[in-house]
Amino acid sequence: MSSKKVIVVSEKAPKAIGPYSVAVKAGNLLFTAGQMGLDPESGEFVPGGIEAETRQALKNIETILQAAGSSLKSVVKTTVFLRDMNDFGVMNVIYGEFFSEKFPARSAVQAAKLPKDGAIEIEAIAMLE
Predict the structure, then answer these.
(1) CATH number at residue 11
(2) Which residue among 34, 63, 107, 125 is least packed, with the fewest CB closer than 10 Å?
(3) Is-contact 23 68, C-beta < 8 A?
(4) Can you give the residue range of the structural domain that contains 65?
(5) Does 89 score more than 80 pLDDT?
(6) What is the SS3 string spanning 64-127?
(7) Is the overall model pTM greater than 0.90, yes or no?
């Protein structure tokens, strides 16, 4: 197991909107930066509100995991930041489309404000396969 930090780059995920990496490998773990409902090509939010943004955020995470040699099945922990906790039910249904068994641990909190005024941001920790 390597002890060095490796930066992950994915051409199919939204570009970082600040001085950070979209993901970092450390040992046998992968840490993603928070992903929002941004279209990777345009850098703009996908239309459709919390449902569409949740789905896109999880697709972005999946793309980053694949670029790093991992997958959604290897996710051990997620943190979900919601603009409005009233959106939890909608988020939870869509989340279940991506994680359907051996669920990762998860925290969900309401945030006063998210970058670019997004409705949701999700980060993940995964094992490398």
Answers:
(1) 3.30.1330.40
(2) 107
(3) yes
(4) 5-127
(5) yes
(6) HHHHCCCCHHHEEEEEEEECCHHHHHHHHHHHHHHCCCCCCEEEEEECCCCHHHCCEEEEEEEE
(7) yes
